[in-house]
Amino acid sequence: MRHTKCWIVAVASLLALAPFSSAKNPSEVKAEKDRLQNSGKVVQEILNVPEDIPQDMIDKARCVVVMPSVLKAAFLVGGSYGRGTMVCRTGKNFTGPWGAPAMYALEGGSFGLQIGGEATDFVFLVINDRGAGSLLHSKVKLGADASFAAGPKGRSAAADTDAYMRAEILSYSRARGVFAGISLDGSTLRPDERANRKLYGNSASAAKIITKSHIKAPSSAHVLIAALQKSSPQLKR
User: Which of 126, 167, 179, 224 could form a disulfide with 40 if both were Cys (CB 3.0 to 4.6 A apart)?
Assistant: First the structure.
């Protein structure tokens, strides 16, 4: 009987401590908010450069993935790792205004034409519904699970060639202030669900954040969302 009482007390103590053990760590939440702020700066700066992403490509994008300051891992052949975010248009078939961002990670593969060993900012445009849907739930290998190409440059550049029309995701990069469309075949993009839970709560997932209109974006994402909304308020098919 005594042992039973001790066991009950121990279980009750653990349950009482559970809310505190699952509470958000302020420093970890700040790290995710910093990622959103950095992503906002990258998008704001890139969209202000006329020689970079063609306007018609931005207007066709269902989602935009931003990976600020991605570093190449020198100890791996062609290895890379980066953390960033994905913002999608809300509503059915991604036709509404830009919504709350979900956190994502870029891993592995080769950086192709990456300039030296500098940290590189990446922006990926997801330009059809299938590409957007595939990124919501699982890891996607670029070039295998999703068709992938280096994006055309210049606001007036022709973006209707077969390569761009077939691609589900287009990539852009910036290193040392130089913009270039490069290939990241073999890399993977995946939802960073641990980061999503830190930012939005334990029930959050990338799919819920992107598809549920009631989820509000944190204030740290306002620059990112405002820049996209100003540049491309409506989807153009």
Answer: 224
